[in-house]
Amino acid sequence: MSAPLDEPLAKSVGGRTAKVFADHLDLRTVGDLLHHYPRRYAERGELTRLSDLPLDEHVTVVARVAKATKKTYGPGKARLEVVVTDGSGSLTLVFFGRGVFKPEHDLLPGRRGMFAGKVSVFNRALQLAHPEYQLLDAEDGKEAVDAFANRLIPIYPACKQVNSWTIAKTVDTVLTSLGATQWAGAGEPLPPALRESRGLVALPEALEKIHRPRSKADIAVARDRLKWDEAFVLQVALARRRAADAALPAVPRVPAEDGLLKAFDARLPFTLTEGQEQVSAEIFADLATDHPMHRLLQGEVGSGKTMVALRAMLGVVDAGGQAAMLAPTEVLAQQHHRSITEMMGDLAEGGMLGGSDLGTKVVLLTGSMGAAARRQALLDLVTGEAGIVVGTHALIEDKVGFHDLGLVVVDEQHRFGVEQRDALRGKAKQPPHLLVMTATPIPRTVAMTVFGDLETSVLDQLPAGRSPIATHVVPAKDKPHFLSRAWDRVREEVEGGHQAYVVCPRIGDEEPDPKKKSAEDEAEKRPPLAVLEIAEQLAKGPLAGLSVEVLHGRMQPEAKDDVMRRFAAGEVDVLVATTVIEVGVNVPNATAMVIMDADRFGVSQLHQLRGRVGRGSAAGLCLLVSEMPEATSARARLDAVAGTLDGFELSRIDLEQRREGDVLGQAQSGTRSSLRVLTVIDDEDVIAAAREEATSLVAADPELAGQPDLRSALESLVDADREQYLDKG
Questions:
Q1: What is the pLDDT of residues 631-642, one digit of tens each?
Q2: What does 217-277 look like in DSSP terms, one character per residue?
């Protein structure tokens, strides 16, 4: 942006304050600060909702003191508990030691204030330990009353080092120091004609109204304008990317009439679903063009994306090219390689004894392969002997060369940054076609915002023979007998000839963290349950007599592969694992899954994990074990997962709870998210309209020669870090 917003923050607020804002909130210029918008607003007399507090997040609440209790344990050892309420719920504030003196004097019953701190659980109740606070009563003097009585109080995204009211005062200082003459030079990313046709206010007015609103109408006017800024700049970035991609040359890849693809299809023991047929047709139409395909294939867990991707790869091999599938983990790469070679049979043994004349070689390339196997795989790729390679990021290394790379398939796109994707594409003589797959269903609005440079295909039908999955929440603390029953159910499934997964958030061989405080406020916050501990407890206790094994990311690759092979072969009854089984693992005989500490996983992750069961003809069972109390948002999340098998519905819930910063691959609260007022679920109309406007602007002026302010806004959006989120999900 231009001059006033580009000024270093230190000029307005001094070096010391500017350093804290830069170090902890990544706010370095006047523009950064003024685009750090309030998360919400409190009104004098309004009661904020304590019932919706998110665990482990830094929050600011407005509430009234209900009671205060002080306990003394000896000289200098005291604990002050202050219960505050807002009508919707209550929250305990805890102060220890010498830290009790001031709050004991200030926080008397009936007094009202703003309280900021990190939400934790102690004795099954939500609490803030040593929160910062600012009282909002008349006792604090006329200045505080004037500041808070007659206007909306902005509550900012804050962090431990910088609380909301400090941000508010700093914004106020900066706005006051910006005179009208300076404001006149503020950069306007929106073209004047667009602003006028949409009835949007100028940027200075919008920034003034979002930080110093006199009414809720002011906030609405400001947000309308600022949403357009975000949507439009992002869509211009994506439109330019689409235009650049469309201008690249690519080799058209049309499958041979009677080649590998036809031979493969003839052997399939089932018919493709309508969805698979339709998506395949879209992909083959793209592959036949002379510019690179950029397609996102998203679909429900188990909807048959791998089959669609494999047919695309076989089509490219038919046309004389090679195809590479990039997987995020070795377990998943090995699984894909195994399932592809099994599905292809002798078609995967081209040039080998007993292989089909129409076949090709399918090789695996991972970082942990032995030297001889690795040398052979590299040789097969560079000579063209291998038409298909499945691998991890080892595929990206300098030594890996291709004879004629025609198609790159990226599985679980959200695990790869843009550099990795581009490095693999750079191994082709001309840009290869690209197919991106994700099993995390994405609402249309998110796809339009995040994957705006990709055409989107959706698989929402499950193949015939997939079974329904029953999901239940197991409240382990409130009803311990429910957990006992869960283990009985696992045993019943195994006795019925099936297998089960038990998933834990942690491995259990981690080094203890020396920085970990043993303070009283950490007393009841136990670490997440661990694979190694739970496996031992189960094998000696409720699942004694069954074959229980472990699988996690720090095991040696051979050991991992051995366990997965034996589990797939039915030799292991119960697999206790981390989320390494989250994607791609396919064992149709596994019918039950117990997820320990389920509240520590995200909605989409739980949906992914659940998709590992019910993959055969027998019904699936998923049990979500949690110690979280019933009224918490964590339990609400688990109830939502138990309530629907619709991944698209769950992804909306997930997005509403996690906010957009997460979706765009950005850091969490306390640092700048690329979207600040635009919400991709609610603002579909703004995003769609901005996409139209951006596409026509880029078509008329590809270099944005007539839009210097827009160009500046674009440069600050798509810096080195942000470049990545355009390729992340």
A1: 777 888 899 999
A2: HHHHHHHHHHHHHHHHHHHHHHHHHHHHHHHS--------TTSHHHHHHHH-SSPPPHHHH
